[in-house]
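Following up on my earlier thread - several people asked me to post the actual chain instead of describing it. Fair enough. Here it is, all 199 residues.
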Amino acid sequence: MLILAFDTATDVATVALVHDDDVLGERRTRAVSLLEEVEQLLHDAGLHAQEIGGIAVGTGPGSYTGLRMGLITARTLAFSLDVPVAGISTLDALAAGAPGAVPLIDGKRRELFTLANGEPRCVAAADLAVERGARHVGDGAIRYRATIEGRGGAVPPDEATEHLPWARHHARLALDFGPAEAAEPIYLRLPDAERALRR
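Reply from S.P.:
Thanks for posting it. Predicted structure:
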């Protein structure tokens, strides 16, 4: 099956076309350029949108705006192409791209999104538990490199590709496709606007 996969939860979005585990094309981009990149990937592969059999979309955690853009795009494409959708955790995709590493997404506000016993969690950067020698990947690992390394952990160089949640991993992790509305975002805290309203 031809899968269109993308993730817009972090500052760097990724998009890929994967057919039966073969990556036909993959790019890093910005959320606002996602549809242009999809069109270019299809063109480069000599394929048409109607050949897409499913969509794998990143569900975060991450940027509220980025997540909404990705999910709305997935739902719109699923409706127009009449294809199912699979929601994939951005943390799971990061972990798949760096087996054995601790995935960390910069949650802003001096917080990090990570996995604890396989479940997404939001932790204060100051409270991050670091196992000596453990590798840490993601934009959160880059931002808090000094803290992680100071506690005995390891972080690959900033330019290492394993810091990105590559869309190919979303496609490979996508096992359960279903209605687009079933792909729900992973919010680990309230959006800033809602917090402001409650104050």
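Helices lie at 34-45, 64-81, 90-97, 139-143, 145-150, 167-173, 192-198. That should answer part of your original question.
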